[in-house]
Amino acid sequence: MIPVIQSLIDATSAGAVYALAALGIGLVFGVLRLANFANGEIITGAAYALLLLWPVSWPLALAASVVVAVALSLLMDLAVFRWMRSQSPAALLIASFGVSILLQRFYEGIFGARVLSGSVAPALTRSVNVGGLRLSLLAIVAIVLAAILLLAVHLFLTRSRMGLQVQAASADFRVARILGIRSGAVIAVTLGMSGILAAAVAFILTAQSGAVDPTFGVQATVFGLIGAVIGGLNRIGGALVGGFAVGFALSLFTSWLPSGFNDFRVAFVYLLVIVVLLIVPNGIFGGRTAKERT
Amino acid sequence: MWTLIVPMVVVWLFALLASNVSPAAAIDLSYALATLIVVVAMWSFIGNSGVLSFGHLAFVAVGAWTMSLLTISPLVKSSVMPELAPFLAEASADPVIALIIAAAVGGVTALISGFALMRLHGLEAGIATFALLMLVVQVLTYWSAIGPKSGQSMTGIPRSFDLQSTLLIALIVIVLAWSYGQSRSARLLRASRENSQAAPASGISITRHRIIAFTVSGALAGVGGAMWAQTNRVIQASQFGLDFTFTTIAMLIVGGMLSLWGAVVGTLLISALNHVLGVLENGVQIGGVIVSLPSGSRLVVVAALMVLIIILRPSGITGGREARWPFRPRDPFLTGVVATPRAATT
């Protein structure tokens, strides 16, 4: 019984990270129709800020990581994505691919291609034993941080005026615009939120690994993006659930696959993704006919 | 016919030129030709169906694997890949036959996955095909019965085709892709690309024709993989990842993904650019000063070029049009009406 609970806790914390990543991607997709692959480089940027500034002062590092992430997110839009608003999601995805590669080379130019290591929040690496369960403090922090942020995003979207405008823009940008939402502000707020979420992902991942390289954020983004798609891209909550599911599955496969198959755990996750998309082509919460056929 | 002849002549001239510039250019040329096959293969699905696929490198990888397993000598195989399944350890074939088998394996893989994936559209199709690629890469990385032990590279691939025959194979692939593009199935598929509501309403089964296109392009991609493997002479599953996918998609987008001509132009342009940048990375003496670009600037230039093209000219350099005989008055139906950005990018 203990190992089962143990792996469920681990899986929940892994799921929480990918849920955050997927939510950031899902929010932006909802408003801009942009499946932002370069979200990974926002995470990487925040991770570099954390790692480099943590020895100086931790509050500064946390603040800097958020600032870097939000600034990167806004800059990307300003430099690239705002010039291609009318294009299809697929074209936007490919462009974000390009932005991602550009930024990776940029990091390589500044920090070098090699892994930069350091320790972020070393206090969190401790773990406590509760009745045979090994509870890593970091796993708990990941779950709590995710829960707080998700609740904050939820409250913001449902309770605040701006949040309602974001939701309206997400449902139908053109109509919302005609009805008088401030489109520029809505876009900026959405990008800002995705930046904050990326910074949170960066915090958990750097605390876990203590090492950053130019492709640091790619894996979380790939799984986040996949999670957002299988959850259903036209529902913000769907992205969340999808991202969580991907992280959860990945972690469970890691701990429960027989040793001969353990190498294939990632392959199983991708297989699962294909199977889910076969059963529900628009994603789990995507609805049946909500999307046009493109 | 010009839509076939112009690309072929251009590829031939390009090859003639590049092979005479320098030995380094000749080496890069054989990579360019192998990549050209891959991009043309991708075009025969993406261009005709308008559905994005991030998964074609899966078929390229499968083709490369097939070619290598069939042409590496059994002695080398037993030492590099001791856990290989017995029938693979013994199998060997003539390079040309191996190439055909690589095409068949690529096509069959595409056919099987096509039944599953071709019901999806847009971004979901993109993600699902990407998942397919990652699935294949993981299997090739870790399954030691069909390749080297986890993530190691497969070496000892003999060089079976010289530059001339690589060029010939690339030209044959262009002919095949073009003939497929002329077929009834491809025409119906293009109709569905332009209007996904009207096409099924006129009795076109989109899924069926997509599966056909996917299979054709999977087979051609298998050829591309085989040629790539024997150009590079060392293959590793991780080579068929995001960077390679990105480069080939960038070539298709820069050239214009709706036309075969676009696929050819994009590949040749970016390959030439890659070569020049590669030379610059190694350092060039200009007036007594050695100027060299930082390594890795190739991918930066390609990425920047692609982003610029998507912003400024979404349908690519060729505008998604096929090559035509240059001395003919423009067809009034071809100017203005076709290749609107929306149709070009869905």
From TrEMBL, chain A:
Q: How does it sit in the membrane?
A: Multi-pass membrane protein
What InterPro entries does the database record attribute to this sequence?
ABC_transp_permease, BCAA_transport_permease
Does the keyword Cytoplasm belong to this entry?
no
Q: Does the keyword Manganese apply?
A: no
Where is the protein localized?
Cell membrane
Its chief place of residence is membrane
Q: Which GO terms describe its cellular component?
A: plasma membrane
Where, by residue number, does the polypeptide cross the bilayer? 12-32, 60-83, 135-157, 178-204, 216-233, 240-258, 264-285
The record's GO molecular-function terms, alphabetically, read:
transmembrane transporter activity
GO biological process per UniProt: amino acid transport
Q: Name one Pfam family in it.
A: BPD_transp_2
Q: Name the domain of life this protein comes from.
A: Bacteria
Q: Which UniProt keywords apply?
A: Amino-acid transport, Cell membrane, Membrane, Transmembrane, Transmembrane helix, Transport
Q: Which family does it belong to?
A: Belongs to the binding-protein-dependent transport system permease family. LivHM subfamily.
Q: What is this protein called?
A: Branched-chain amino acid ABC transporter permease
Taxonomic source organism: Microbacterium sp. LWS13-1.2
Automatic annotation (TrEMBL), chain B:
Primary localization:
membrane
**Matching PANTHER family:** BRANCHED-CHAIN AMINO ACID TRANSPORT PERMEASE PROTEIN LIVM-RELATED (PTHR30482:SF1), HIGH-AFFINITY BRANCHED-CHAIN AMINO ACID TRANSPORT SYSTEM PERMEASE (PTHR30482)
Coiled-coil ranges (or none): none
A molecular function (GO) held by this record is: branched-chain amino acid transmembrane transporter activity
Q: Where in the cell is it found?
A: Cell membrane
- InterPro entries linked to this entry: ABC_transp_permease, LivM-like
> Single GO cellular component annotation?
plasma membrane
UniProt superkingdom: Bacteria
What species is this protein from? Microbacterium sp. LWS13-1.2
How does this protein sit in the membrane? Multi-pass membrane protein
Question: Which protein are we looking at?
Answer: Branched-chain amino acid ABC transporter permease
Keywords assigned by UniProt, alphabetized? Cell membrane, Membrane, Transmembrane, Transmembrane helix
Query: Any keyword Nucleus?
Result: no
